[in-house]
Design a protein that fits this description.
This protein is an alpha/beta fold. It is 59% helix and 11% strand. The chain has 13 helices and seven strands.
Length: 354
């Protein structure tokens, strides 16, 4: 099968075709539009026939539109992790970095890796990821403004104390606004007042986005939400970043994608392992939060498992790694259960929903 690797950007996409042994057969550049995507498919089918595999670097913020057009045309599409693409580019004979070099690395990585996740059009996970990313950006912006306000208040009165996290609450914001009005017309007082107003508006918007996320996630992944230690935001992060859980052949592939599968780290001293430092760090962080919570909750299976591993002689860090790997399996199973429930409900709607 001919593999066509894609290097995607905001305005253009570069495609490079390779055969089964990785030999480059041709390339093309098209606009990053539906018309451009159709030109790429016409080029591929004219040159190499209809049986081709499209390999796209796994960056949905840039590749989602391309994936939708390819899947809508009944094309087979796989996602290549950036780590794999980088490794093949580094070991290639052609030095440097360019769009054709990157597309070639993507194609060769897909040609050599038979079990890559298959791309699918999953509007739900895309929407959830977009909302979570937007909320994260709002929180970062609010935190930046809060830090500036705290410094300006310190400049006005080094002895004035503001409770930690207080500026996210309306009563503390209003109290500080009243105090600032007593500080005259200094630049610090005026700017701090403007930034507190912006902080209030950001807080309201963050709450609105969080409410929308809660509504989506509660309906989409009730089994995952029932998992001890998994809150709405962690569940949303897992749902959005997994990008359709059925694209993974099994829980081992999901754990590897999340950077939670253990890798050997020994030489002449067999048996030592650690977690890989690659993989999706957002999924990794969400599962880590669940693991930390369960390790402190005596009435959970995670607590019992964590204590058992330490009783077996593992250090707290090693026991936590084992717990994260076990929880990756639970998360995968819960996401899979919820996905099948949504699919069944969509295919067999209740009379009221119909």
């Amino acid at each position: 099968m001919i593999v066509i690797g894609a290097d995607v950007h905001k305005r253009t996409h570069t495609f490079v075709a390779v055969d089964a042994v990785g030999k480059q057969l041709g390339s093309t550049v098209v606009p990053a539009t539906t018309i451009g995507h159709r030109k790429a498919m016409q080029w591929a089918h004219t040159r190499f026939g209809t049986t081709v595999l499209w390999a796209i670097e796994d960056c949905r913020n840039m590749s989602a539109w391309l994936e939708r057009d390819l899947l809508g045309a009944a094309q087979k599409v796989v996602r290549v992790a950036p780590r794999l693409m980088a490794e093949h580019r580094r070991t290639g004979r052609e030095r440097g970095k360019s769009d054709p070099i990157d597309a070639l690395a993507v194609a060769r990585a897909a040609a050599r890796e038979p079990d890559l996740p298959v791309a699918s059009h999953d509007a739900l996970s895309y929407d959830v990821k977009a909302l979570v990313d937007y909320r994260d950006s709002l929180v970062r912006e609010r935190t930046s403004k809060i830090n500036r306000v705290l410094w300006r208040v310190h400049q006005l009165d080094p002895e004035r104390h503001i409770a930690k996290g207080g500026l996210t609450m309306k009563k503390h914001q209003e109290a500080l606004q009243v105090w600032l009005k007593t500080q005259g017309t200094s630049v610090d007082a005026r700017l701090a007042g403007k930034e507190i107003t912006a902080i209030y508006e950001l807080t309201v918007e963050i709450a609105e986005v969080a409410k929308e996320i809660t509504t989506l996630v509660s309906a989409a992944v009730p089994t995952l939400l029932a998992m001890p230690g998994c809150g709405v935001l962690s569940a949303a992060k897992l749902l959005g970043e997994s990008a359709d859980i059925t694209r993974f052949p099994g829980e081992a592939q999901f754990a590897r994608h999340a950077g939670i599968a253990p890798v050997p780290v020994w030489s002449a001293n067999p048996g030592r392992h650690r977690l890989t430092r690659s993989g999706n760090r957002q999924i990794n962080a969400a599962i880590h939060r669940i693991a930390l919570t369960q390790a402190r909750m005596p009435d959970t299976l995670g607590y019992a498992y964590y204590e058992k591993k330490q009783a077996d002689g593992k250090s707290p860090r090693e026991a936590m790694r084992c717990l994260k790997r076990r929880l990756a399996r639970v998360v995968y199973n819960n996401l899979t259960t919820d996905h099948h429930a949504r699919t069944h409900e969509a295919e067999n709607p209740t009379p009221a929903a119909a």
